[in-house]
Amino acid sequence: MSESGSGSGRGNGPQRGAGQGGQGGQRGSGSGQTGQGGRGRDGSQRNAQGRERNRGPQRGFTENAPSQRTRRADPARLVAFEVLRAVASEDAYANLVLPARIRHHGLDKRDAGFATELSYGALRGQGTYDAILARCVDRPLDQLDPAILDALRIGAHQLLAMRVPAHAALDQTVGLARAVIGAGPSALINAVLRKVSARTLEEWLDLLLSDETDETKQAAIRYAHPEWIVRALRQSLVAHGRPVTEISDLLEADNAAPVVNLVALPGLGSLDEALEGGATPGELVEGSALSSGGDLGRLASVREGTTRVQDVGSQLVARAMAAVDLGNAGTSGNQSPGTEPTAERWLDMCAGPGGKAALLGALAREHGATLLANEPAPHRAKLVRQALAAVPHEVWHVRTGDGREVGTEMPESFDRVLVDAPCTGLGALRRRPESRWRRTPKDLTDLGPLQRELLKSALAAVKPGGVVAYVTCSPHPAETTAVVSDVLRKRDDLELLDAGAALDSVSLTGHLDAGHELTAQLWPHVHRTDAMFLALIHKKA
């Protein structure tokens, strides 16, 4: 790809392992070589105009003279830098910070796409890039100013994984550093990135892995995942009946830029405008579409809330719960023979921020049911109300309270209950690029009791004959099958329904190959969804 006409050296997309010299740019020659001019005839480091551009015998000239160096921050790279800074210093979420920074700097569609890839790519690849940078910096990385390290990660991603000419990646990243960090740090960044540019990504990986024999450590470096997550995902594959040899495909899928999934709320929304704008119909579930991104706020249905951004995995599990035939579930239904059917009551126990609640609300409307959306945090409960605003108000109600108390306060009150439990999010690492570096094994231990308490509360709140859907966006057995088996143990009034068959029944393919021992697990490398887990638990009548 050629660089953009603006001179920013911007390519048109990621290229994992792309060489730095073959895309139209020349590699920097390293910190020990002179650029334009070299040493003067008297052996000093003055150029032809008599300016001493580098002090100290160990340093050579930079490639550009001071008058030619970029002294401003390219807006797209500035956005990426600000996102990384917010993530590191404010514990922010990239997917929330990025759109606001794009709007603030007024980026067009092309620059917004570049900023998105640069932000998410630098965050996803942080482990690999840090291992490379550690070979190019003369001190431990934790001794660098955090802002300098973020600038180096941005530069490394451009050089090693994007179709950006090396000279442009160097010039623009150093210009960014000079504008927002300072002239002194920019010299360090220039020298380090020149060393990074001396090898392709594959060459760096060969060097880093040359003396490493542990397969887990190799995968952690090659695919930029913490070692504990590599081990956890290997264990997860086996626990859900898939071969452990798929681990490389799974880790690679985590690093792929996800396609934006859209859902039209059933009976309320339409995908026509999105499809006319270039989106393609979804292949897995009815009423879905895949979008190349851009400003989705331009779509009237998105502004109205009747079309929403939602991963297709989340769409599938919500539809599967809504589609369970309670009259034929397990041993008996929840309706006595000869009586008139009553309107069902549904509960979304952990509803914030409201994506699944909006879809469930629309489905409840079609089924003649009502939905209670529960969320403990007031600010997230407000988001749930906003998400449900497009659904007629008589269908839904939002409760602000602890989901663990619902079973006691409203026992046997609901026909269908969704428990989208708080979890580590190991199944959504591709959409939350910073998450893999924040989570620790301790999170598994800390979240386990909460997950079990919420599921117990849901089982107390569901009517005899009703169904509870236990859902996580993590495939880890400690958060999925172990929770379900622990709660069901020693109870004879509960039984698992075939969750894999339930997903098949609401999919367009009719066969997702997601079921294993009555539970179901979706995978990014198999289904191109988040790794959503689903267990359907029927309370016997």
Provide an overview of this structure:
- This protein has helices at 75-90, 94-105, 109-124, 126-134, 146-161, 166-180, 183-196, 201-209, 215-223, 227-239, 247-254, 272-276, 300-304, 312-323, 355-367, 378-388, 406-409, 435-438, 441-461, 481-488, 499-506, 524-527, and strands at 260-264, 280-281, 288-291, 307-309, 345-348, 370-375, 396-400, 414-420, 462-472, 494-497, 515-516, 519-521, 533-539.
- The protein has 541 residues and is α/β, with parallel strands linked by helices.
- The chain folds into four domains: 66-201, Orthogonal Bundle (N-utilizing Substance Protein B Homolog, Chain A); 212-254, no CATH class; 258-309, no CATH class; 312-428 and 441-539, Rossmann fold (3-Layer(aba) Sandwich).
- Strand 6 (370-375), helix 16 (378-388) and strand 7 (396-400) form a beta-alpha-beta unit.
- Residues 1-7 and 12-68 have low confidence and may be disordered.
SSE layout:
Elements: H1 75-90, H2 94-105, H3 109-124, H4 126-134, H5 146-161, H6 166-180, H7 183-196, H8 201-209, H9 215-223, H10 227-239, H11 247-254, E1 260-264, H12 272-276, E2 280-281, E3 288-291, H13 300-304, E4 307-309, H14 312-323, E5 345-348, H15 355-367, E6 370-375, H16 378-388, E7 396-400, H17 406-409, E8 414-420, H18 435-438, H19 441-461, E9 462-472, H20 481-488, E10 494-497, H21 499-506, E11 515-516, E12 519-521, H22 524-527, E13 533-539
Parallel strand pairs: 5-6, 5-8, 6-7, 8-9
Antiparallel strand pairs: 1-3, 1-4, 2-3, 9-13, 10-13, 11-12, 12-13
